[in-house]
Amino acid sequence: xxxxxxxxxxxxxxxxxxxxxxxxxxxxxxxxxxxxxxxxxxxxxxxxxxxxxxxxxxxxxxxxxxxxxxxxxxxxxxxxxxxxxxxxxxxxxxxxxxxxxxxxxxxxxxxxxxxxxxxxxxxxxxxxxxxxxxxxxxxxxxxxxxxxxxxxxxxxxxxxxxxxxxxxxxxxxxxxxxxxxxxxxxxxxxxxxxxxxxxxxxxxxxxxxxxxxxxxxxxxxxxxxxxxxxxxxxxxxxxxxxxxxxxxxxxxxxxxxxxxxxxxxxxxxxxxxxxxxxxxxxxxxxxxxxxxxxxxxxxxxxxxxxxxxxxxxxxxxxxxxxxxxxxxxxxxxxxxxxxxxxxxxxxxxxxxxxxxxxxxxxxxxxxxxxxxxxxxxxxxxxxxxxxxxxxxxxxxxxxx
Length: 400
Known about the structure:
With 400 residues, the chain is an alpha+beta fold. It has three domains: 74-144, no CATH class; 187-269, PDZ domain (Pdz3 Domain), CATH 2.30.42; 273-399, no CATH class. The protein is 56% helix and 18% strand. The chain contains 13 helices and ten strands. The strands form four sheets. A four-stranded antiparallel sheet has the order 5-4-6-7. It has a two-stranded antiparallel ribbon with strand order 1-2. Strands 3-10 form a two-stranded antiparallel ribbon.
């Protein structure tokens, strides 16, 4: 059950990402053609204001279709219209006029498409060839339309593409702020759990105990942690309230990689809303810095063991669910931040690659050739596949 919830959590993060693209595109006038919750085949779909909304039968995320991501080229027409032209040779002439129009300034392309469609309707072709041709007509008309992505000013393209990663980062900030206002703000004096084979367990501390004093000195939640860390391994006498009575318990902190600890997890105390939001931004900034540094180490050939694939991410999420909703939300926030930052890497087909190309085209005042996009995408896909392979081998090793 926890594994299924973890998968749905990851799907939700993808949906948030795509929703960012969708609403930002609408806001700047790059009207999306489709927005689906889940992936096809469609369990249900409907049209509203020229946009096809749908619910996919595969409940893993979602997708949005922004019109005209690239300047149309002759190959786009050949790929979609060739099956119909091979079945009805009389279409070859109009197909040739379409492809030649796409080599020029595109001013004659709409008329050429209208001519091809008229001749297509007058011919009999197979359903598959007709479906391919109709899809090609829709794609090319979208790419030639006034709201095509490739025609848009640079700032509109940056808003539409950057909104996906920004949505994931914003979700992280919201989740962290909620957690800081509930139970993740400051540590309290109340013990939530005791680690197995820890000094606390050996001393007899229990979940629900409230530590009110250390060595006879009254302490609050923050002071309790400071006294344990600063003990240098010296035995401490904790005064705890248990079942309404104060009990003195001696415990000796053990040295760990994080300093001296006794092996307890304490309940949290929520922060005021404003302070929680500020803390959320602070923690998001710290984690962002660590993720960026880890990517830098990976470039230098270090930190390979830190990479995880979706399998490992799902496993970690599943483990967090079993530890409680609070832990799961922390992990979900961290994963959302990672998704947003990794999508900003400057490689196609990631969002960061589209951001880079939008800036380059804006600076030079004209679009780059499709071949440049395709070659850059090959490099980007290779990088993504390499990261996935490294993460997968790490996850297999961990499972083993």
